[in-house]
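Minutes, methods subgroup
Present: GH (chair), OT, SY

1. OT presented the first of two proteins processed in the latest run. Sequence and structure tokens recorded below as shown on screen.
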Amino acid sequence: MALIIDLKPGEKILVGNAVITNDDQRTRLHIAGDSPIMREKDVMKEEDITTPCKQVYFLIQCMYLARKPDIYFEKYFKIVKEIQNTAPSTSFLFMVINEKIIQGHYYKALKDAKELIQYEEDLIKKATDHG
């Protein structure tokens, strides 16, 4: 079954290691195969890593796009441990994300990492509101 992606004018997507930029009109793509695919809006650049949970998202993104995702495991699990030590309430979220990573479902783990980033933002907001 093909993935169908509607692109806005000028929108970009990653397909494997290639960046595809849409022209000046809406386009619908039908993509079949096993290459990793990400919309530009979901891609985190290194300069956007401003919090530990964004670092987690970035590392999962690297796993998803890499031919050998396991090269990111050590760094990933090290930061997860640091976050859980600082904010134990994140443990359940990491349990879900880690299960998907272990199963090789990196794209699904990315979706959960977005929830983790939102949770982190909420924790920071609560801490600064009470501080």
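2. SY then presented the second protein from the same run.
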Amino acid sequence: MARPIQPFLDDARQRMYKSVEHFQGETRGLRTGRANPGLVDSIRVDYYGSKTPLSQLATVSVPDARSIVVKPFDATSLKAIERAILASDLGFNPSLEGKMVRISIPPLSQEQRLKLAARVKSLAEDARVSMRNVRRDVLKEVEVASRDKGRDPVVTEDDVRESKESIQELLKEHEKLIDEAMAVKTKEILEV
């Protein structure tokens, strides 16, 4: 027999994992001192009047640790891609080389590395707060369900107590994922 709180636990697990994925997506675009295609993921190019993600207009590759090469599918979009890279807040200086755009990645200073590490820590805390909000919301839903006597299946007081423990375990499990991802990204950033 399925536990009456299982749908609540499944919802909490799914929403907490989305917070982890969001954190990983946010940190993917942070500079680490070496070239990474994820650095240009957030760039949107004005292509025929609509803002199009760079990944839909070109292939992005990393030929060496200090440069990114963008090869557009349509050569007429070269100038638009260059403008979009310049307009981004990434601080890159692209150069046109034939039918591609080369982006040289300047080395990070120690001060920049420390700022980026602090940004990762801030993003991790935002993800933790998001997961704590999920815990609060799901526990509230379980308590409301326990007061609803016409609900099938019935949620008992024991189920409410069990859900508190289970959801707290879920939170710890997902916070551990955030901490591990934060440690890896911080190490990448601080490596010289």
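Chair's summary of item 2: The helical segments are 6-28, 54-57, 78-87, 110-147, 157-190.
Next meeting: continue with the remaining queue.
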